[in-house]
Amino acid sequence: MLGGGLRQAGILAAAGLYALDHNIERLSNDHANAQRLSEGIENAEGVKLDTKTVPTNMVYVTTTAPAAQFVMELYDRHKIRCGAFSANRIRFVTHLDVDSQDVDRAIEAICEVGARLTQPAAQR
User: What single-letter DSSP state applies at residue 46?
Assistant: First the structure.
């Protein structure tokens, strides 16, 4: 899921060790934000949660529109970054730099983009 080659293993390990040494106490915040995000978009048009419960800081959705288009619209219109990793799947990740206001903004944006992309092209 992290991508790249084995040559990068040390860099990834260093990031993990730093996180364990400095941010382990606040991981519950990331998990709570991911849960709030999943609850906020649970009934949004154009997306379907891959699971009802979100055990980590990652929220996976399946989109009715092409995932690449959904991701592009979220960034172009709302400056929200997320990743398309297949034709119709997107991963949202909450982390140290994402607070509850960002989650609220993301919920609003995902709902807006999802609703718009489910409309016929002539109505967009």
Answer: T
**What number is the average pLDDT over the span 50-70?**
90
CA distance 64 to 5: 32
* Both tokens assigned to 19: 């996180």
Q: Taking each helix axis from N to C terminus, what angle separates 100-118 and 67-78, rounded to the nearest 10 degrees?
A: 120
Express each pLDDT in 24-52 by its tens digit: 888 899 999 999 999 999 999 999 997 77
**Residue 121 predicted with pLDDT over 80:** no
DSSP characters over 53-107: S--SSEEEEEESS-HHHHHHHHHHHH----EEEETTEEEEE--TT--HHHHHHHH
| Tally of CA atoms within 13 A in the half-sphere of 114 that contains its CB | 22
At residue 9, the pLDDT reads 79
The structure tokens 């699971």 sit at 51
What is the residue whose two structure tokens read 């709302």? Answer: 78
